[in-house]
Give the backbone structure.
Amino acid sequence: MDLTLVAESPYRFRLEQQDPMRVPGVVFATRELLPQAAGDKSLEQVANVATLPGVVRASFAMPDVHWGYGFPIGGVAATDIDAGGVVSPGGVGFDISCGVRLLAADLDTGRLAPRMRQLMDTLGHTVPRGTGRGGLWHLTGPGQMAELLAGGAVYAVGRGHGVPRDLDRCEDGGRLPGADPSGVGPRAVERGLGQVGSLGAGNHFLEVQAVDRVYDEETAAAFGLRAGQVCVMIHTGSRGLGHQVCTDHVRAMDQALRTYRISLPDRQLACAPVDSPPGRAYLGAMAAAANYGRANRQLLGQAARRAFASAVGADLELVYDVSHNTAKLETHEVDGAPVRLCVHRKGATRALPPGDPELPEDLAAAGQPVLVPGSMGTASYVLVGTVGNDAFRSACHGAGRVWSRHQALRQVRGEELRGELEARGIAVRPSSWRGLAEEAPRAYKDVDAVAAATEGAGLARLVVRLRPLGVVKG
DNA sequence: ATGTCC
């Protein structure tokens, strides 16, 4: 396919529809942010996604788009369920329900400073992280796992890990409906039993941050945020359990392609109709894995609360918890009529506008917080959903990688990077030197530019900028 | 992302 991009506005580029695409591609970015890394095939992937059966409107890419498995990371695509639309595990990603939780402390940076070292040491010693390894909550067995997979953060709070108010500030109230724990295989269950309440590795982290800049005072206040305030941002997902669920169902769907006579430009887009046995099986297992991810972040939020209580004597209120790797059944207006859709967001955050009935009462007038973590040592952002977002109410999810992990390892030494960050006043508690080097800020796009482009494209509005004070690295 | 290969 000829991948010519046509600028429709300074923040919106169009990939013209051509055979076998069923819809055009739309990339939200500035010219500077468009994928240009050697070997980045993400624009080709945007076009590939546009060939999926039942896809409607367009195959979208957010400003942080980069190459991924099948779908690009930063990709959004919706399929019409009643017109044979498909669901694809590659459109969710291996880390099912990977997402971000932001908590705000009743504390400003000045009062934290003398206790910062103690706080970071406490977090460093109590937050489980790294590949494999254990978590904060060891489940007793498959029976308890089934309850957690069905209940997500609701189950965790019911067992004393948090307060009911937390659930008001979680996407879907902390529990994605439609979970089918029986679709999560024994191997996935085995991997997950000891990992509830763990960060994992890669780009996952727990960061202590400060509200650095406020763009919209009224919305910030509705979110419980003010200038100079200390916050905690947690970025993690469904660990080995979600990975295993994706692996198992990609295999099943690859075999289902023949049954449903689906031809694809890339086998990594393996999929099945939403309304089919393999489609329903994946969505049930995916929702269960999503609930694992939500319980995981709930447990880590509690670990942060304990550390703040003991080291600083401060409380943490949940601002919001939202996933950026999901496939959700939603109704949107397409060509003037409501249509039942399966919306894939892979490295893309749902962004509900003010007035949406899914919002909790105290956020109804403001809109949904959109949590955008930056790369290590750089800023993070809170944005808010806006009216008129035609990417099925979706926004960016982070900075977006430009160097491969391998490439980063050739350019950066972890020990040196830690020194650079500490010299800039950012405390670092690493898990491995290698992992630290792979996550060097140089390996990512400029998150300030990504956030600005997201606002420029009308996907969401800036609310606050957060700067890092200390990072507990996965 | 991931017991970075069953």
